[in-house]
Amino acid sequence: MDTSDIRKGLKMMMDGQPYAVVDFQFVKPGKGQAFTRVKVRNMATGAVLERTFKSGEKLEPADVEERNLQYIYPEGTDYVFMDAATGEQIPVAGEKIGDDSKWLSDGLIVPVTVFNGIAIGISLPPHVTLQIVSSEPGVKGDTASGATKPATVSTGAVVNVPLFVQEGEWIKIDTADGKYLERVNNVGKK
């Protein structure tokens, strides 16, 4: 790969560590050689740093593997995922998942990034469907447009939902910002 391949999400090796491009900017000054200013995140540690690459400089693709694994259960501070094809169980450290753990429900299939045989992170889907386990009933007459109430979903996360949404219903939630998207009526088991 070279600098013309740089884009958001590109995974590359730098100093023996896998990095993912968070942001980049191509700069062509009036004088001198063009370059690309890149902000990258270390996929193993989460550290973010900036680097500058001269135009045409060669880059090494990251030696990471993306595997679609099924979430099965928490174990201490870790979360255990399973490869449905082989039955292999792979733990992912809680600090690698962070706050995203509140969207993990039994059976959810997520891409897990593996580096040197060790899981270093997950990529949540854009939205998840979860069941509301507790919510106060909406107050009759309180119909102001956009009025919401807090609801606890099956994973323990609290989401603000419209007043008409009831306990026991399934809702779709945006994993990026934790906002309610819509009610889901025909949910078999996901």
- Give me the secondary-structure category: mainly beta
What is the topology, as strand order, of the major beta sheet? Answer: 4-3-2-1-5
Instruction: Tell me what the CATH architecture of the largest domain is.
Output: Roll
The oligomerization state is single chain
Strand content: over 45%
How far apart the termini lie comes to 40 Å
Protein name: Elongation factor P
Family: Belongs to the elongation factor P family.
Keywords: Cytoplasm, Elongation factor, Protein biosynthesis
Domain Translation elongation factor P/YeiP central: 66-120
Give descriptors for this structure.
190 residues, mainly beta, SH3 type barrels, OB fold (Dihydrolipoamide Acetyltransferase, E2P), 3 domains, five-stranded antiparallel β-sheet, 2% helix, globular
How is this structure best described in words?
InterPro entries: Elong-fact-P_C, NA-bd_OB-fold, Rib_uL2_dom2, Transl_elong_fac_P/YeiP, Transl_elong_KOW-like, Transl_elong_P/YeiP_cen, Transl_elong_P/YeiP_CS, Transl_elongation_fac_P. It comes from Chondromyces crocatus. Keywords: Cytoplasm, Elongation factor, Protein biosynthesis. Pathway: Protein biosynthesis; polypeptide chain elongation. By secondary structure, this protein is mainly β. The chain has three domains: 3-61, SH3 type barrels, CATH 2.30.30.30; 64-122, Nucleic acid-binding proteins (OB fold (Dihydrolipoamide Acetyltransferase, E2P)), CATH 2.40.50.140; 127-184, Nucleic acid-binding proteins (OB fold (Dihydrolipoamide Acetyltransferase, E2P), Beta Barrel), CATH 2.40.50. It has one helix and 15 strands. It has one helix at residues 94-97, and strands spanning 11-14, 17-27, 35-42, 48-54, 60-61, 64-75, 78-82, 89-92, 109-115, 118-122, 127-135, 148-153, 158-162, 170-174, 180-184. It has a five-stranded antiparallel beta sheet with strand order 4-3-2-1-5, with no helix packed on it. The protein has a five-stranded antiparallel beta sheet with strand order 8-7-6-9-10. A five-stranded antiparallel beta sheet has the order 13-12-11-14-15, with no helix packed on it.
